[in-house]
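Reply to dn_fold:

You asked what the input looked like. This is it:
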Amino acid sequence: MRLFPGLRSLILTFLRKILFFWVRTDVSGATVEALGLDPDKPVCYVLHYSSLSNRLVLEQEVRRAGLPRAEAPLAISGGPSRSFFFLYQRSGGLLRRRKPLVLMPQVRQLVQSNCRHPDQDVQIVPVSLFWGRSPDKEKSLFKLLLSDTWAVAGRLQKLLIILVHGRNTYVQFNEPVSLQQVVEEYADSEERATRKLARVLRTHFRRVRQAVLGPDLSHRRTLVDELVRSPAVKEAIQEAVRRDGLPPEVARTKARKYANEIAANMSVVTIRIMEVLLTWLWNRIYNGVAVNNIQVVKDVAQDNAVVYVPCHRSHVDYLLLSYVLYKNGLMPPHIAAGINLNMPLVGPILRRGGAFFMRRSFRDNPLYGTVFNEYMHVMFSRGYSMEYFVEGGRSRTGRMLQPRPGMLSMTVRSFLRDNRKPIVFVPVYIGYEKVMEGRSYLGELRGKKKQKESIVGLARTARKLNNTFGRVAVNFGDAIHLSAVLDDYRPGWRTETYSHDYRPPWLNGAVTRLATQVATHINAAVAVNPIGMVATVLLTTDRLAMDERQLIRLMDTFATLLRACPFAHTVTWPQGEGHEWLRYCENMGLVSRHPQALGDIVGLQGVNATLMTYYRNNIQHLFALPSLLACLFESNTALHRSKLIALASVVYPYIKSELFLPYPTEDVAPVLDQWIDALVEQGLLRADGERVCRPEEGTQAMLQLRFLSRFIIQTLERYHMAIAILRKHGSGNISAAELEAQSTLMAERLSILFGLNAPEFFDKSLFRNFIANLQANEVLITDEQGLLCYTEALDEVAEDARLVLSVEKRQAIQQVTMQDQD
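and this is what came back:
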């Protein structure tokens, strides 16, 4: 017997209020804009399983969000009486015999209504509820009793779930499904249309569950046992017995020890505690965390194993990324962490937060390498999300470091063995306005020994919590599908057979291409902030000081220039304009102001003068091409457009490799042409037919062009220096290692003599990369003795450099080089 509607509504309201005395929710997507609702079409919500508590939570959240009411009548003919329905009927439970799932009659009613009235569409909004966000654990009593795994729970079990997990409830509203579009294919058969609608919604809920909870997790002890029993590890144990003369049991124990040392032990309790602690921490030390392009992750996480590949600027990176993912309804990834972080107290916490530990090198330990490879393969084949840093270590200069291939190679090899679960890389740019380790980085760049991670060091870091470090941006770049990369590089890879220890001859080339693509996508998601803009302009001056009005004018000009020719759609910009950015930078204590009657002077002093190079380097790649074009007018008043593009194209491959620019070398000419037009439009260059001219000396435009040229000039000076040293020695008289060492020493000397506040100017890895690129472009070849030989092509490169650098810079480099030879 049905209750009167008013009495039923009163009872539901009473129960809802009682429920929310205890329940606390975190809601995603509950806005008209996020859902893209059409106000002219009725809305009907769908939940996966029949549950009174879920119904009460749904009604509470739509009321809070101002969405159409779930308890309101559905305004269509012959449909359900309410604006919500359950996909499946609850059945079974802890104290009852389980029965097969039953499709709810409202699903059939909706389909019948649309088949009979095809002109009336309904927006079906799937709503997913998670009472706690615990990943499934196989063979776990906790799972059977208290985890909300979407298995059909009985009433007593559901009550326990609410009591245990109710204060950590996650509700996700998803974009609506058009009933009309689903049904129209089978409009002549209500039964087939009903099955299709049920299948579409069932698939949707499964995909959301995969993204939010992640795949099933085995108990850690079970996982370790599986690793030791795997064929690959068994073979490695036998090899260790033969090679090292170990008793089989000792080798097996060693393999188990390695597995225990490596494996994560993700704990939901730890993740929840960390969420609370990190929320407090971010609110204390940061002015906000901006998250951009998160929808990319939500889309790919539903059907793929996701590998997050962030840039590495701080130890905060992995904590911040896991926090952002968890707060946005995604399962935190398993994180590859260096074994140096497996410290007392800290290591167990990180392990329970999803970290798995790896040694820096295991080339000389085949057994450890096999165990680690098998652990990675298990993670990928089961669909876990993973996170590792392709740079290997933290960037001390603020630039993207050259990727290291190790983890990428393991990922590709695992995928070749078993590609049933697609793997997608999600590049992540994490941008800080003030990096916590900034001062220690400066010490290391000046030769100070890197401090080993320890509890004492952690305690010292804790003292910094009273400081403010500005805002942080977490930008997600465009996803990279591993299968697409392999299809492009090796079209027939699917037809080949791969064993656990097989390395196809084309693997290194594929990994190198993948690494470059990952680094390029990270840079393309850069977050420009006020600190970077102020640093970029101020560091172009000889005295590190500038008139306030000039500084503001230059920032606005260069920001307008970059927006006129966008680097990538994933780049984000700060709000406001130059004068607001400068004021913000002052409040952060990074610049100083000197009042003066003719206008205040803004400058950099002390350690900030060097520290700001870090933030400039974060965004240097954005200015690379316009700055390169500006450099060509240091010694030339005018150039034919084709000559200008040709000269820039010669230097471009080396800058592309160093700064990870996105344009292929063979296709850069049209991009340079666009930049020339942008510079002309901004008044920084003049077009005279096919000739491109610089502004008149003494004008504001010429001053701006000169400042723009200085953004990249130190990079070109390093190239010129290495070539000058090579030519001084002559062809076949110096090795690559010697050239790298001499170039590094020479750059360090030049930086002291000319007061260059740029530690990366004498970074030996940059010289190593430039020499490698000269070899890749066949400008240099290595003879049988390992010495570098060159032809006239090097003279052409040197001649082009002469046109890029000013006379003063060329003479300075030549002078220091000659002194070194003397």
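Residues 92-97, 137-145 have pLDDT under 50 and may be disordered.
Hope that clears it up.
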